[in-house]
């Protein structure tokens, strides 16, 4: 087997930077959000004070699903799994006292990504920060929602239109923003193997590039702003090989399939997060060790930014103490372990190189199958990746039940009792406060300006114009996430999957 | 003996359906008749499904924290439709403090992350209503 090219050299198997982490460590970005924007704003200030170098917003389910707190389906869900953001007023509160020009912000938002991103842009506008200097990422990855996480609103094809509108808008107006984070994380959490995570995520990335080109964009104008997001799971060497294979496959696809000329289009940048699904409710302190090992593999695989999970996350959203310990875990890897001083330290290992090559080959076979199905959107419509993942999830569970696979503290080594840990309890107060604020907003804003702006969104959706400018206008008029999504539901309809077991 | 009929439902806005699908398949492989409702079902829809399918058991998968809203409504509707003898179990992320509240409402089993499938199968087999007397 030939040794791969050096770090910084195409196809970047060994890393996109020749000097690894020497010039710049990975960004330590802890995903956080709960309750009201006021609650989360406090947590962000604490994370920044503790040495966090970027923010990452977790939204609640109503926000993710484009529903206002006063919608029937939002009952009991407001502020539970993340922060509730209903209108620009909430976004202003969320970033109160945080200068958007000085930080980078990642926002985990998909179906309503354009609306939430527009709110962030308007907050920057109000802070006097030019859009050209903003740094950050919106997840904006709808394909993995259909495949795995299932937080979709509109059918696949109009959803892709909303995404390519963001690509086009940012290429002109917000050039440093990462317009998408093509995510394998949720695919893996849903039960995919490392190979399936790799293959489906990369093929999703290829699909977005194809749709961008079909929408009239030039490959090198938007591909450099595409980023990725992988799951840092437990099989130490397989995970490192997965990141290396991902960089290789992306570089090949961008240069080969799409003829990209700019090397920034070839270089895959990715965030990683330790595997939530690997955390156990039993013996929760074991999770600190799992997370440290998973984070170490992501660093050895060359991650560009990292989230480490908290020990209590199989039980609840993390407490501030648990979140701080998680951040400390990656700081110890960064500053004490010495691994950040060497680039791709395991490159050339017979075992790792073989694993990397095996994963690459397996992914190429999946690419062929999906190409034959007519691309990823068509494969999703046919239920192909969904079935593959459900099958893997069931096999995994069976292997645990049969004790072919050991999970310490769960199906083996269960003695030693349950170390109890305090957990964060989110009461119904956040929901009540958000409902009050929404009622007040609806009394005070200019209703006719809101209606005009919502009509303009519908008009853009019907005529195929870029939806971002009318969405920005609606945000400025304090239209809510639910109202903006309803405007598009009216034109595009809602997606319902066929449930299969 | 007739097969135990189970409706597996995913209420609320959450789409994380790995657990619901895995348990649905495990119950089916254990010889039960399983109907999976799909995502985002309201309590009304779940009760209608249970009625239509003549279900002996309703299994709810909830990870989002919505159980405190969903469970009371569901139990009330079951009572109103005369389905008190349907066994209701919940699996997912449920804070300890909420478990007694759910039990008081009539939810018989609450299964937290890491519960072996066999334990859930055994619980349902032991506690589902007796179909012969019906």
Protein model, in words:
The complex is a heterodimer of chains A (501) and B (134). In chain A, helix 8 packs parallel to helix 10 (236-257), helix 10 (236-257) packs parallel to helix 12 (286-300) and helix 18 (447-463) runs parallel beside helix 20. Chain A has helices spanning 37-49, 61-64, 88-94, 113-127, 143-149, 156-173, 185-189, 194-214, 219-222, 236-257, 263-266, 286-300, 320-335, 350-372, 376-381, 384-401, 429-444, 447-463, 468-476, 481-492; strands spanning 27-32, 54-58, 104-108, 135-138, 177-178, 180-183, 226-232, 270-274, 305-307. Chain A is an alpha/beta fold and 501 residues long. Chain A is globular and about 65 Å long. Chain A has one domain (27-401): TIM Barrel (Alpha-Beta Barrel). In chain A, strands 5-4-3-2-1-9-8-7-6 form a nine-stranded parallel β-sheet. The two termini of chain A are 42 Å apart. In chain A, 50% of the residues lie in helices and 8% in strands. Chain B is of the alpha/beta class. Chain B has one domain (5-127): Cobalamin-binding domain (Rossmann fold, 3-Layer(aba) Sandwich), CATH 3.40.50.280. Chain B contains five helices and five strands, in the order βαβαβαβαβα. Chain B has helices at residues 18-29, 43-52, 67-80, 99-105, 117-127; strands spanning 5-9, 33-36, 57-62, 87-92, 109-111. A five-stranded parallel β-sheet of chain B has the order 2-1-3-4-5, with helices on both faces. In chain B, helix 3 (67-80) links the parallel strand 3 and strand 4 (87-92). The longest helix of chain B is centred in the middle third of the chain and has 14 residues, at 67-80. Chain B is globular and about 35 Å long. The mean pLDDT of chain B is 93. At the A-B interface, helix 2 and helix 16 of A face helix 1 and helix 3 of B.
Topology overview:
The complex is a heterodimer of chains A (501) and B (134).
Chain A lengths: L26 E6 L4 H13 L4 E5 L2 H4 L23 H7 L9 E5 L4 H15 L7 E4 L4 H7 L6 H18 L3 E2 L1 E4 L1 H5 L4 H21 L4 H4 L3 E7 L3 H22 L5 H4 L3 E5 L11 H15 L4 E3 L12 H16 L14 H23 L3 H6 L2 H18 L27 H16 L2 H17 L4 H9 L4 H12 L9
Parallel strand pairs in A: 1-2, 1-9, 2-3, 3-4, 4-5, 6-7, 7-8, 8-9
Helix pairs in contact in A: 1-3, 4-19, 8-10, 8-14, 10-12, 10-14, 12-13, 18-19, 18-20
Chain B lengths: L4 E5 L8 H12 L3 E4 L6 H10 L4 E6 L4 H14 L6 E6 L6 H7 L3 E3 L5 H11 L7
Parallel strand pairs in B: 1-2, 1-3, 3-4, 4-5
């Amino acid at each position: 087997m030939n040794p791969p090219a050096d770090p910084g050299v195409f196809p970047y198997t060994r890393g996109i930077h020749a000097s690894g982490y020497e010039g710049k460590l990975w960004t330590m970005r802890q995903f956080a959000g709960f309750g009201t924007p006021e609650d989360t704003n406090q947590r962000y200030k604490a994370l920044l004070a503790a040495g966090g170098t970027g923010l990452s917003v977790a939204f609640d389910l109503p926000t993710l699903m484009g529903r206002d707190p006063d919608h029937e389906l939002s009952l009991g869900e407001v502020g539970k799994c993340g922060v509730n953001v209903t209108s620009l007023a909430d976004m202003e509160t969320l970033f109160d006292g945080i200068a958007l020009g000085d930080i980078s912000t990642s926002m985990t938002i998909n179906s309503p990504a354009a609306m939430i991103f527009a709110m962030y842009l308007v907050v920057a506008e109000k802070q006097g920060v030019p859009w050209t200097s903003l740094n950050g990422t919106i997840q904006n990855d709808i394909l993995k929602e259909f495949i795995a996480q299932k937080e979709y609103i509109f059918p696949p094809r109009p959803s892709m239109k909303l995404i390519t509108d963001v690509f086009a808008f940012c290429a002109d107006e917000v050039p440093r923003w990462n317009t998408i984070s093509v995510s394998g994380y949720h695919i893996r959490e849903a039960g995919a193997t490392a190979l399936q995570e790799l293959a489906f995520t990369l093929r999703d990335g290829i699909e977005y590039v194809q749709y961008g080109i079909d929408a009239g964009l030039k490959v090198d104008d938007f591909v450099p702003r595409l980023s990725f997001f992988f799951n840092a799971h437990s099989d130490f060497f397989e995970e490192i090989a997965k990141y290396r294979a991902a960089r290789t496959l992306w570089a090949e696809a961008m240069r080969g399939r799409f003829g990209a000329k700019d090397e920034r289009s070839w270089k895959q940048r990715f965030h990683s997060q330790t595997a939530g699904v690997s955390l156990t409710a039993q013996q929760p302190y074991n999770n600190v060790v799992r997370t440290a090992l998973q984070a170490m593999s992501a660093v050895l695989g060359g991650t560009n930014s990292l989230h480490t999970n908290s020990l209590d996350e199989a039980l609840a959203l993390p407490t501030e103490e648990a979140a701080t310990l998680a951040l400390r875990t990656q700081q110890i890897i960064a500053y004490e372990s010495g691994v950040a001083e060497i680039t791709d330290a395991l490159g050339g290992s017979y075992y790792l190189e073989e694993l990397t090559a095996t994963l690459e080959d397996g992914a190429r076979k999946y690419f062929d199958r999906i190409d034959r199905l007519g691309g990823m959107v068509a494969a999703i419509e046919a239920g192909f990746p969904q079935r593959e993942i459900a099958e893997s999830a069931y096999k995994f569970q069976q292997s645990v039940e049969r004790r072919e696979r050991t999970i310490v503290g769960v199906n083996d080594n269960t003695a030693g009792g349950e170390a109890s840990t305090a957990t964060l309890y989110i009461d119904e107060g956040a929901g009540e406060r958000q409902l009050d604020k929404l009622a007040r907003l609806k009394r005070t804003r200019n209703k006719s300006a809101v209606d005009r702006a919502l009509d303009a969104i519908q008009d853009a959706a019907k005529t195929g114009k870029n939806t971002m400018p009318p969405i920005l206008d609606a945000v400025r008029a304090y239209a809510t996430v639910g109202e903006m999504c309803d405007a598009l539901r009216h034109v595009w309809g809602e997606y319902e999957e066929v449930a299969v077991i | 003996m007739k097969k135990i009929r189970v409706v597996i439902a995913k209420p609320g806005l959450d789409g994380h359906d790995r657990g619901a699908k895995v348990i649905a398949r495990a119950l089916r492989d254990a010889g039960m008749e399983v109907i999976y409702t799909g995502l985002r079902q309201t309590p009304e829809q779940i009760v209608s499904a249970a009625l239509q399918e003549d279900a002996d058991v309703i299994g709810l998968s909830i990870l989002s924290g919505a159980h405190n809203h969903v469970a009371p409504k569901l139990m009330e509707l079951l009572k109103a439709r005369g389905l008190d003898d349907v066994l209701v179990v919940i699996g997912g992320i449920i804070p300890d403090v909420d478990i007694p509240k759910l039990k008081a409402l009539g939810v018989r089993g609450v299964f937290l992350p890491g519960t072996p499938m066999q334990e859930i199968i055994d619980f349902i087999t032991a506690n589902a209503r007796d179909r012969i007397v019906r």
